[in-house]
Design brief:
Elements: H1 3-9, H2 12-25, E1 28-29, H3 30-39, E2 50-51, E3 57-58, H4 70-73, H5 76-91, E4 98-103, H6 109-121, H7 123-128, E5 129-134, H8 138-152, E6 160-163, E7 174-181, E8 190-195, E9 198-207, E10 210-216, H9 221-229, E11 239-242, H10 244-256, E12 257-269, H11 271-274, E13 285-288, E14 291-293, E15 304-306, E16 309-310, H12 311-320, E17 324-330, H13 331-337, H14 340-343, H15 352-361, H16 366-369, E18 370-377
Parallel strand pairs: 4-5, 4-7, 5-6, 7-12, 12-16
Antiparallel strand pairs: 1-9, 2-3, 8-9, 8-11, 9-10, 12-18, 13-14, 13-15, 17-18
Helix pairs in contact: 5-6, 6-8, 10-12
The structure holds S-adenosylmethionine.
Length: 397
Amino acid sequence: MPSDSLHFSGHPKLIQKIIEEISLRGPLTFARFMELALYDEGHGYYMTQAVEQDQSSRERIGWQGDFFTAPELSPIVAKTLVRQVLEIDAQLGHPSPFVFVEMGGGNGTFAADFLRHCQEIAPDFLNRLFYQLVERSPYLQSLQSSRIREAMGHWGESQLTWVSSVEHLAADSVTGVMFSNELVDAFPVHRVRLKRPDLQEIFVDYENGQFLERLGPLSSRMLQDYVDRHGVVLQEGQVSELHVAAEQWMAQVARILRRGIAITVDYGHTGCDYYASDRKDGTLICYFQHAVSTNPYIRVGAQDMTAHVNFSALAKSGSACGLLPVGFTTLANWLMGLGVEEMVEGHDHESKEVQALSQLLRPHGMGTTFKVLVQRKGIESMPLQGLRYRAFFDDVL
Ligand SMILES: C[S@@+](CC[C@H](N)C(=O)[O-])C[C@H]1O[C@@H](n2cnc3c(N)ncnc32)[C@H](O)[C@@H]1O
């Protein structure tokens, strides 16, 4: 096979591994296929650097990568979060330590900006802060570590640590904040399609040198339970996703948080919009060098794969475990509520910060696509600056 077609189809060793698993066990659920494509230890998308055809390497996230995220766009995202966290710290009575858990930190840009800003404006808080990163990819853990070191030198030898999964954090161990940006959209999803009379699952098979999709009965009882719990109703032929992994993660967050707030930022919808009949093909998309594709069977291991988040399902599964909703808004409203405009007052209109902010706040831009879900546990509901401007009625979830 010529090397450019290999580059197009994906990583040969990863493809081989997937083919072997299919021949051993039969067609894979889409969730398993996505799991291997993104998180296979040797070759998964998030587990390695991108290697170009000319053997040069680049990071996956950011302008040189395949997609950018809000914290990569501007440090103002982390700076506004510091404001919010300081308000929560005051409401929790300045605990020591204040634990900030960042889950799925990518390149470490958010962590570096967050800590640097704490050092500038809240050194006392920084002294009490314990920064816990949860990162599945060892490669990204090391990138995060070097970004933080560049920003903070030797700060935090005993105030900074990593685990690879929320499962490794002890129950009730966090008084503080549990934060993620674009983590949940990176969880493997099951894909389903309504073929009357049944809801069928999409499985991935391999035949005549290519991956293809087959429909079959739901692979586990958990999926039917998800459908029943969240009132998933599709139209004939409609494809969508079921987020079992996101629910399991939410339960873990509830288990770990003793007193404090969970802040989840991601693109997504309420359940009602998620399964709306005009969303015929679901929300799964792939990113490669800032181009969007709907084909997950090309560039396997070399392109990002992501599904929008069902925030109603997250809120509902959180509530079932004692993690109660405080509010839900758009990222733009969240940033405005935290005073982002005043943070750039006096800056040149052409400056990077103002340009990035206009990109975040423009109508139909990231600021409206992205939502912020805030939940609490072990504390009374509190007014939060980030939720000053609610974009929706409180019962929208
Ligand atoms: C789309 S990236 C977002 C990166 C970063 N938050 C940002 O905004 O730039 C998803 C991140 O979540 C991590 N991740 C995915 N699943 C995870 C899991 N189960 N536990 C911890 N980290 C996970 C990925 O390795 C990656 O760092």
